[in-house]
Amino acid sequence: MAEAGSGEPVLLLHGFPQHWWEWRKVIPGLAEHYRVICPDLRGTGWTDAPPQGYTRDQLLADVVALLDALKLDRVRMIGHDWGALVGFQLCLSQRVQNY
Fold first, then answer.
1. CA 99 to CA 81: how far, in whole Å?
2. What domains are defined for the chain?
3. 34-56 residue pLDDT tens
């Protein structure tokens, strides 16, 4: 996971087969105003790659667990590709601020 900046949290969810590095050119600008959080979704980047658990529901559970671990009730969210689908489910879970 990569993290930068301070302020209101913004969660960036990458696409497949990328990892947090996909956001490397976006992070500096956002970090001027926000706390930017870029996790590696299950099986990518520096995460473990278990043989199972790549369903939308499991990926969503992983993101929710991360937000819980960071003690964040709500975040702004930007998603790309598969990350956008997980992010949409996160929006439906009422964890994302709608603007």
1. 20
2. 2-92 (3.40.50.1820)
3. 999 999 999 898 888 888 888 88
